[in-house]
Each structure stands twice: as C-alpha cells, then as structure tokens.
Amino acid sequence: MCGIVAYIGDKPAFPILINGLKRLEYRGYDSAGVALMEEGNLQIYKKQGKVKQLENLTNGHSFDSTVGIGHTRWATHGEPNDRNAHPHYSSNHRLAIIHNGIIENYGALKTELEEEGYSFESDTDTEVFITFIEDIQKTLGVSLEEAVRVALTKVVGAYAIVIMSQDDPDKLIAARKGSPLVIGLGKGEYYVASDATPIIEFTNEVVYLNDEEIAVITRAGFEIVNTKDIPQKPYIHTLDLKLEAIEKGGYEHFMLKEIFEQPRSIADCMRGRINATEGRLMLGGIRNYSGALTNAQRIVIIACGTSWHAGLVAEYLFEDICRIPIEVEYASEFRYRNPVIREGDIVIAISQSGETADTLAAIELAKSKGAIVFGVVNTVGSSISRATHEGAYLHAGPEIGVASTKAFTAQLTVLTMIALSVAQQKGTISDVKFRELLVELESIPKKVAKALESDGKIKEISALFKDVHNFLYLGRGYNFPVALEGALKLKEISYIHAEGYPAAEMKHGPIALIDENMPVVFIATRDSSYDKIVSNIQEVKSRKGKVIAIVTEGDVLIPKMADFTIEVPATHEALMPLVSVIPLQLLSYHIAVMRGSNVDQPRNLAKSVTVE
Amino acid sequence: MCGIVAYIGDKPAFPILINGLKRLEYRGYDSAGVALMEEGNLQIYKKQGKVKQLENLTNGHSFDSTVGIGHTRWATHGEPNDRNAHPHYSSNHRLAIIHNGIIENYGALKTELEEEGYSFESDTDTEVFITFIEDIQKTLGVSLEEAVRVALTKVVGAYAIVIMSQDDPDKLIAARKGSPLVIGLGKGEYYVASDATPIIEFTNEVVYLNDEEIAVITRAGFEIVNTKDIPQKPYIHTLDLKLEAIEKGGYEHFMLKEIFEQPRSIADCMRGRINATEGRLMLGGIRNYSGALTNAQRIVIIACGTSWHAGLVAEYLFEDICRIPIEVEYASEFRYRNPVIREGDIVIAISQSGETADTLAAIELAKSKGAIVFGVVNTVGSSISRATHEGAYLHAGPEIGVASTKAFTAQLTVLTMIALSVAQQKGTISDVKFRELLVELESIPKKVAKALESDGKIKEISALFKDVHNFLYLGRGYNFPVALEGALKLKEISYIHAEGYPAAEMKHGPIALIDENMPVVFIATRDSSYDKIVSNIQEVKSRKGKVIAIVTEGDVLIPKMADFTIEVPATHEALMPLVSVIPLQLLSYHIAVMRGSNVDQPRNLAKSVTVE
Questions:
Q1: Which residues of A are part of the catalytic machinery?
Q2: Nearest residue on chain B to A327, judged by CA atoms?
Q3: In this structure, are residues B569 and B579 in contact, taking their beta carbons and an 8 Å threshold?
Q4: Which domains does chain B have, with CATH numbers?
Q5: Across the 612 residues of chain B, what is the mean pLDDT of every consecutive 10-residue run?
Q6: What is the pTM for the complete model shown?
C-alpha cells in the first residue's frame, strides 16, 4: 500500500503535499517524494525513509509551485531506496507519476520499451508505466489524457495514479482501478488523495473515483471519463469526518489512543442498533437478507490477520446460537484453491480497511459462484463495502495504528449482533438468552473501561518480559482466537516471536518449547473450560514455564499457580473476547515501547495490505 | 509390521525366543506368542499385550523344546487379542506359523476353504494362509516344503513366515517376500528373525533371505530354493554391528529410520488397495458406507497435532475433487463447544495411535449427535478404531519416534485414497484425472526415495542454522499444512520456536519478525500458486531474511533468490505434501541432533496423548 496526494490551485502545493503525506504515512513509509513545477521545469525530490527525511532533504528550498504530486511508499517492486521512490519521471523527464498498486504485465511492457531503445532508472513497474504513456503519446500523436486512457486499456493490474506534465503544467490526470482515490473539491482548487485525511481540513466535498475512471483536473474544474472514453457523472459526497479523529488526541501513539478509545468505539458500533431494555436489535444490512441468512446451510467467513481471528470467535458463537455450520478461511487460501461454494451460501468478509486485496479477490470468487456476500468493514465507501451485496460497518472511526485494536473489538461486536439477529429470526435462541446476551453486550463498554484500569500493572509486568525472545499464548474455546490475536499483536510491534495455540494442542508438540525461559500467557477466564485450562497451567508450571494469566475478577485459584495474574470483569463467555483481549493489547504495546519499537509504524508492515 | 524369531539347535528354545521378541518389540507390541514342541505335541502359548505378559503367562513352565518359533504382533487384520495373536495353528493343529506381512487375497482363499468345510479360530489372514498350506499338503499329498512352495505361488501380498510341524519337528521352513528375514548360522543350530537383533549375541554369520526364497532348516544345515523350485546359493554375511544400532536398522534414531522407511510404508499403505494400471481403487471400510459418503452435505475432520495437519491437506483435496464442504477441527476445541453436527453428517477422525483422548471424546460427541464416524488410524484394534463406525488403517507399522513422520505420509495416502474413491463414486472427477492421480500416487514411494537423497545437503544446511532461536515456515495451498507440519517437527525435537503460516498471511503480521536473523523456510514447489510464493520470497529477501526453499527439481528462478534450495521431484500438486514434507522432516532431525536433543524422546512429550 502507498499513499498518494496531489494538489492544483492557487496556494503553494509543497506544504499541502508534505502535510498530506504525513497523514497518509500509515499506508506506507519506506520512502517519500514530491514532484513540483520549478521555473518551468518538472522537478522531483524523493528520498528513502519517512516523510520527515524528505522534509530534511528539501530544507532551505522555497517552492512556489501551485501544482504538485506526492507519494509515500510501501515497496512492492524493487527494494526501498531513493531510486525506487515515487514520483517517477518518464524517459524524457517531461512526465511524472505517483502510483499505488501493481502493474502485473510490466515485465512484458518493459521488454518492448527496451527494444525500442528506452532505458530505466529504477526497478519499478511504475517507471515502465509512465514511459509507456510517453511512448504512446509520441507514437500516436495524441493528447496526454488520451495517451493515459490508451495505456490503461493495455495494462493489467491495480492502480491509483496521478500524473503531471511539464508541457501541460496546469493539469493533473488521475485514474484508479482497484486502489482507492478521492478528489477533494475546493474553490478554484482541487485535491487528490488515497483517502480523505489530507483533504479534510480544506474541504468536506469529495468525489470517490470509481474503477477504470480517469479524471482530468484543472484549476477551473474537472471531468471524468471511463477507460472506454465515455463521460461519467461525478457524485459529490459530503464528509462528516473530524480532523481530531485522525490525530493522536494526547496519547503517545495512535495505537495507545485506539486501545483506550475502545469503550467509545464499541459503543459507537452498537449505537442505534441495539436497545437492550426493549430487547431490540436492528442491523439494516442484515434485515434485507434475513431470509437468506436464516435459511443458510452454511456460512463461510473470509478474512486475513486480525480480522480472521474475529472470524474464529464468530464461528463459535454462530454455531452455538444459530446452529449454522461455519467455516473460517484465510482469504489468500480460499481464493487460490477450489472451495465448495453453492448457490445461496452466505459469505461474510471481514476487513478493517475494506481494501485488503486477498479478501477482495476472495469476495469476487465467492460472488462468481453464486454466494451472497456480506461485508464487515470499517472504512466507509471502501472497495470491499462496494463489492459486497450488503454489510454492516464497524463505525469505529479511522484506525491509524498499524496493529489493529479497536477494529478487532468492533468486528466482534458487529459479528455478535449479526449472530444474535440471525438466531432470533431462526428461533434457535430462547428469548431469555437473547435478552441476557443483549444486556451483557450493552454493558461491554463499561467492562472494557474496567479492564483498561490494569494498564499500570500490565506496564510493570511488561518491564520484566521485555527482553525475552519468545512467547506462547494459550486459550480454549472463545478465548482460543484471543490467544492468536494476543500473539499477533506482540509479533507485529515488538518483533518478539509469539505464537498462539489452543491450550489442549500444547501437548501435541509446543509443550517441548517450555522451559524456565519461556513465558506463557494463558487466557483463563471463568467459563465452561475453566477446569481444563487450570490443568494446562499446571502442566506448564511443572515444566518451569513462566505463567501470565488473564483471569476473571475474584479468581482465587489461578493466582496461586501463575507467576502473574491480570483481572478482567466477568461476562458471558461468548462476549469474553471483547474484554480478555484488552490486557493483551496493552501488554504488547508496553513491551514494544520498552524495546524502542516504532509502535504505530512497525517495520515491514503496512496498515492495510492492498497487494497480494 | 511384526517381529518374528525362530530357533532350532541344541539349546532350550524358549529363553532365546523370549529374549529375541523383546529385541523386536519396536516392530510391534500388541500381542506375543511362541510355539514349542512339548512331549511330541506342537504347543502354542500366546497373549495380548507385550512380551512381558507372555512371560508372565508361561511363568513356572519349564520348556525343554530345542525348536520353536515366536512372534510379537502389530495388528493388521483383526484386533489385538489373544485369539488373533501369533503363532497360528492350521486347522488340524499339526502346523504352526508366524507371519509378518499381509496376504491380500486371503478373503477369497478363506471363502474357498470354508466351502471345503474348514473353520477358523481367529480373524487373521495368517490362519487362512497356514490352513491353505495344510489343505494343499492333504490334497496333493506332497511334503510340507512343497506344500509351502505351492501355497506361495498362489498368495498375493507380502510375507515373512516361519512354519513348524508336529509331524516334522526337526525342521523349520522360512520364506519371505517384501518383509525382511535373516538366518543366523551357529554350530549345529540356526536362528531365524526379522532382523539380526535376536541373533547377534550368538553368531555374526548370517544369510539374508531374498524375495520369493524358501529356506528349509534342520540342525544339520539348510537349503534355499525359490518359489519356482530352483535351488539358490546363499551368500553369508559377517555382521559388524552393535546391538543397539541394528534395533534401529542401522539408523542412529528411530525417527531417522522411520523417515527413511517412508518409501516402503507409503507403499504398504497402498498395497492391495490400488492398482493404477487397471485404474482400480478399493478401500474396504469406505465401500460399506459409500452411499453415506457420496451423499454427505458436509464432512468434519477431527484430529490433533500432526494428524490435524494431514486433515488440512485432505480438506483441500476433498473440496477440490469431491465438491463436499470440509471443516477441519482441533478435537480438543470441537468437543468442548457446541458444534453443529446433523444426522448423517460424516466425521473423519485421524490418529496415529488410535488412543488420543481428545479425539476419542470428540468421536463420542459426534456419534451422540448422529454422525457417521470414520477412523484413519495406524494402530489396529486401538480405541479409536473400535469407537468408529468404519475406517481405513494406515498399515505404516509401529511408529516409535515421538515426532510423527511416516504416520503423517501414510495418513495423507489413506485420505487421498478415500477422496479419490468418493470422487469416483460421486462422479465429480473425470476418469482421466482419476487415473492420472492414481498413477501419480503409485509413483510417490519412488519420489519420496528421491527426496531422501538430499539428506547430505540438508545436513550441511542444518549445521548453519542449528543455533538460531526462531524459524518461520511458509507455504500456500496444499503446501500450507506442510509448513505447519515442518514447523511442528522442529519445535518438537529441537525446541526451536518455529511457526508455520500460510505465506500470504505473512504480510498481516509475521513479516514484522523478519530481519537478518530470521530463517524462513518456503515450501515453494511448482504449482498453481508458484508465482505468488515467488513474490513472497522476494518480500522476505528484500527485508534481509534468510531463505531456505523447497523447490521442484529443475527450478531455475528460486535458486537465484533463495539462500539455500532443496529439490524434490515433481508431482501433482495435491500429492506434493507427501514429497515436500520429507526435507522438512530431515531438517528438523539434523538440527535437533546437532543441538544434542533426545530426538526419539523429546522433553515434555509423549508418543500418544491419552490424557486431555
């Protein structure tokens, strides 16, 4: 994933681009660059590293250009370095491009162009792409916009691009397919970006470009055609996004802010959807397909990473209360094998960003086989929200920290509401149990707030474990996916090798790892498998492992066995993951901070994975 | 697999047999027995359990017999009990036999003999075999050795046998085909055994019987003919082996022996079940439930540990060729939640030992909900084989090494045969593809043997990685479960924290772990996701990870990127796990040995987990 921003108007472009790139750094941050007009020349400045390094590079320069494009990169082709950073010139240095996505047939194009005598400065697909456009313009003798259009009919892959030209400096050309692009409409000025964050302080009127649309933007206005050259009518959205929502709000890191935001984000997620007092639950998207859902012979959940863990929790709840068989699949695996999907099967796709490439492709595959696809997505208007038949948004607000926290709990909340809704309509849940779960769900934000109070204690424990090399996380039943999620958090931001397992599987191999150097986190809250997990704790202690146990408030047994215990409030076991994951998020956060990791932008990772 | 031992000479035979059987117990230990001459009568003593139980049974007896045969059993036909233990009498109790192997056409022979009026005391193929010999001797009026020879020309299968006769008590007749047999040459005395371990303390001169050879042994000497009655000249070997080494067949550890046994154990698993030339596939247990299987709306596979990985491979194959939705569950999780199982759903339970407690409990739960349960089990007569409605045995022989190797490949083989059989009956596989897969499956033992030839190279690579703390294993599609299995092997015996992942999931978290200290094993054989995994290798290399790649013979692309490559022969992608897991078994073995681990009995682990 990369971040794209562009500006054309009457203000100096450079500060707008830099500021926008910083907002977009969550999308990638291995190199950054800008292209501007300087004394009639198309000039590119770019640098490996964060946007800060780009700013340092250009320190002292004063830029007048009122048009420009900027890019922050997460490498897909060619390693992260200055040369491979965007923007890229075309061969004659009269065109510049920024690009988010992958041109899959760039190898063939490159060979053709090399045979014609072109050479390349970088290893990127993007430089091939813009040189291809230059070549078309020359060969066909057409306008730049026509050359872009023709080029787009020839390339295979995904892209969001913005192009500027030395010969036509009062114009930007933007296009997308598969990667997001939004145009912000000012007065005599226009913004283009990967999402609205670079735009929001200037205007709340935006147009989301659709796949295979090309926008030609001047200071006087813009026009959209599709790649078949048919004019398209833009639909203007009015954004209701507050700037403060995308800033840190006093926390040291976005991740910590987002962890502590969860009482609110979970409540936001339920707002207007449930009323426990009246025993009412209403999810718009679900209502429209309630017949399909209650009659489903099978539901397949597809997701990646943290969202996949949310899917595993949902599997247990759906099977328990809806009596529908559930299969949870890695999107990447699902799409490349030959899965059984029958006409009318239900697929639920989960993605925070709504842009996850593998999930998107899996959705298309499921649709092609006749499945009805629901989206559980955070980002409104994202590709997945548009590709699915129906869905329910998380309403958790933008998640900037690369390690997902509040999106996970919001996903659990939405999936719980869907399961309850289906169970009620199917009659597979008693009224009493339905109401009990609804009341319990409504109380979760308060319980999460309570769980967050252990922050100080967790910080102390973190200090003792910050230098270990390995961690195991074990849970059973509803807490098994929580073990996977806790381990993933630690991996992502502390770079400690942590692994989650269903506790009973430990005896089939992983127990060999246990010695006095191995910390083991048990999610051991009071539920139907409590006695069993107590035995598992004893097995680890008898092999001298160090045990950190997440327990229910008031537990007196486990504190006698475990080295450290962290309490969380009691709740129904099906809802426990919403609460028991909180200490694990904090544990990973504090350990990572103490190890000096860049918590919000951990190495090698990007916020959403929009490439395969 | 069974152990056999026999003696003829001037010493009391009984202590020699008991001592020999104890040495051979690694070949099987579900029941044991001896046949001796007592006051002119051919007397059999046999008992379910270990050789120790047989000793207890015969406590107090003093045996003078200077001729005798003994057997320790690993059940293949008929459950382990006193009745099915060897030796077996022929119908008139004047012949006794010990047998290691499987007589494939015993069913037809039994029917014929029953029509002639014979009846049988056991459920074994072996009793049919010896009664067949008795019948030939009677019908043709020939000598015992001639009757044996004629019988051997009529039976299909594998055998190592020793026969003694009440009417000819100074003679042993031994023969082999496919199962090992060695004759030890003393002074006026001879030993016969499955391997040299029962012999080595008495003599180091031995003759290895060849396939389709028959030895007639008296105290005065022995003669060898082949089944065509042509005399054979024996070649006398002088052994230079330590007792300990030959118990493990010359290998340093049982695990290594079992890894190298796989060409044979996979072939054993298919023996009598497939005939690729004729396009035939026949699994007894499956035939009885073919209607239930072909009509199944859903199959749930339950297992633990390595068996669970075999289940994941089966999921892909079943969904691909049988078009039945498959759900693979951890037995421990399945049994404690409230899973959806409907009347007539099919459950397949996989377990090497057939005693895994969680799997057994999950089977009972599934049965209580009306499921039809199949077992895929190695140990004949084990609890799981008895608790299931039907099943298919692995016939892989006893697995002694705690880290499962040959059982995994045998599980894959059996599951593949089940899937092919169901697909054929359902008509969801074309005849051409069915035959293609059958031919390919039949060639797997040879390809596994080829894969084993990389042992030396793998040992060299192991030396370079023996001191690392962590490993990642990545694969896609059919090779994803192989990645999990490779990681588990390393964990179990080297205590290195190794983790398997579907390669595409790496970008959703684990990639943060990658730096110059992190070795990553890619299972990257040529298949439908080859291009994708090549991209994943590039992503790891661009972050400086060390890449060990398992590739298809002749791959030229990946060796340019990876730090180390290990080649395996090409095969159909659905069968590739049978081959691609081999180098991973060897890698974990060599690393563990170099780290000084107790490979056959790693810390904290037990061979089969008979507690929760």
A1: 2, 607
A2: B327
A3: yes
A4: 3-244 (3.60.20.10), 248-451 (3.40.50.10490), 453-599 (3.40.50.10490)
A5: 92 95 82 94 93 86 92 80 95 96 87 95 94 96 96 91 96 91 95 90 91 96 96 88 65 94 94 90 85 92 97 97 95 90 92 90 94 92 87 88 95 97 95 96 98 98 95 96 98 95 90 91 95 90 93 95 97 98 98 93 73 60
A6: 0.78
